[in-house]
## 1
Amino acid sequence: MSGGDTQWPRFEIFQQARPDGPFDNVGSVHAPDAEMALQNARDVFVRRPQTATLWVVPASAILTVTREELASGTGQPPPGAAADQTEQIYHVFTKSSQRRSMTFVTYHGDVLATSAEHALEKMLLSEDGAHTYVYWVVPDAAITSSRPDDAESMFAPAHRKSFRLPGAYHTRTLMDEVRRANEEPDNASDT
Amino acid sequence: MPATPEKVVAPIVLAMADDELILGHRNSEWTGHAPILEEDIAFANIALDELGHARLWYDLHSTLTDTSPDTLVFFRPAGDYRNVRLVELPRGDWAFTMLRQYLFDAFELVRGEQLLESTYRPLAEIAARILPEERYHYRHTETWVRRLGLGTAESHSRTQLALDVLWPYAAQLFGPWPAGDKPSLAGIVPGLAHLRERWEALVLPFLADAGLKIPTLELATAEGRDVHTTHLAPLLQEMQEVARLDPEATW
């Protein structure tokens, strides 16, 4: 095999847990196109209930900037915006906590701008960003969304699949029993 | 005196259960071997869904006949299975697997939509539960078959070859129900000619759109669901091996 990346392009997945709720980034999938990405996202990330809508966005369409890049100037957006470009909607996502979480960046706000860099610049001007570690700027035009009438076949069946939840099995109780049995005094000579 | 619905329905329910079980088992053979990780997860989900559908049909069957699903699944020899030969064929390559699943999904979809109207309520209730998942299966395999059919020269020729092999087997889906085409089935299960018409209306234009040539239609052999290929026995041998080691064990 040659050294190149032979994988399909990467799509970032944004999940909306309930209608009118925010979209949060839950991970990524590889796929040859957006429709396949949507289906792969359904099977990889909607194994548990509570999904109203999925967005898939080609990773290459997203501007990602870390706090360190901003501080060192390497990620600094070029000032201003090209005058001949029309404005479009950008969705800005941020990571503002170091806690472990099922999501990476979460929804922060929408900006009307002529480019992703311009959108980030506008966002930075309006706040101090002291607690933001990562910014993602997603052009609205790059989003492929599941449709409302997809929900019944894409998301609803997961509600009934209790066998996917760890609680459906007694493995943990059994493991505890096994562990306790191993800790009985007759095993003490092993240690 | 006409037979009760329970009497005529039981063998049909068993056939539907066996189709789902054997196909689900074949699909599960891809787990860990699918072309990419994401599809491995997606297709394992579909395999599990089919086993879940089989479970629903076996459970209904056991209320009709007092035979437990475990007994039927783990202790029946190949000759007693009532699945179509289409689902027992070895999984082949990815094109073969996707195309078989597509043809079966289309069948399950049109059959499920018809069963919603069944005068025998348990059939309609299970169909209502299965259908949302089937709509997704159909969308997924349709997506794959279209891309394989219109993809590279190799993906196209593999998919066409799969279609040529699978087509006559698919015709058995519309062979007589195991109970025979009794007048007493009217309203309980959809008529097979009508099912076939709806299936062809769905499948034929799609396959043509996917750049595939419909084989000259070969009629299914007269052999019914009690006749199997040599591939079913080894599948069952593996599937039943553990249960048969200790038939009295509690799981």
## 2
Amino acid sequence: MKYRDVVKKSIVAFMEGRMPEQTAALKEEGLKYTPEYFDELEEEILGEKAVDKKEDDDEES
Amino acid sequence: MRNLKPRFDAPIPGENFTSDVKNYPWHRSPDIVDFDEAVEYVVEQVSKPSAITTITSLMEGGANLTSIVSMLNMVNVSNGKYAVDTSLLISGPVARFLQIVAKKDGIDVKVGNENERQIITLEHLKALSGLSAGEDTEAEDIVSQPDMGRVRDDSMPQGGLMGVSEENRSETASATQQQSMLGYSELDDEEGDA
């Protein structure tokens, strides 16, 4: 298996919601950058964008 | 035939044990060992205006997330920022962040195709350089012209390599001019005859 293939496997696992358990167990407070964190970030970024676009449309009309 | 000459510039057995193994950044302890710190570092790195422009262009050109994340990891591991193991752990979060950036810019980016290796084609390069399909038709028209790249037959010299071409044949000096160039004059000819 090549490095590229392992990277892809890691990406797919994260996208499916899996996290490195042993790494997470090292920290009492847990890991910050979890799939849930990025879901919230996506909502925040793309949600803001949608609101901005709506405001622009209102100004034009 | 195989060259059997001995190579005296080759390393001697065990020479690797005599060299300093901390010559390269990846031979030393990495700067970042924490998962969250490493993710933060890469996210900050790719969020810089120059970096995000390049990465967005790559994604528009058809590069998938695996290729981009592998490239970022290679750079950071070779600079000693984090270890290879950490690079594999943070690949997921970094790819997810890039996916959000792509969605924000309206780019459809894929994780990567299992069976297909990403090959940089002319289309990729055109996309990266901002050329659309219609902009380079002028260049293609010029190349497709029948005379393009062909030497006109009438311009080819007759009479071998040193022959005079038809274009230059009229510029050849007359017999009198050639005589004067050689230092002879009509008077000399007359004296010679006498």
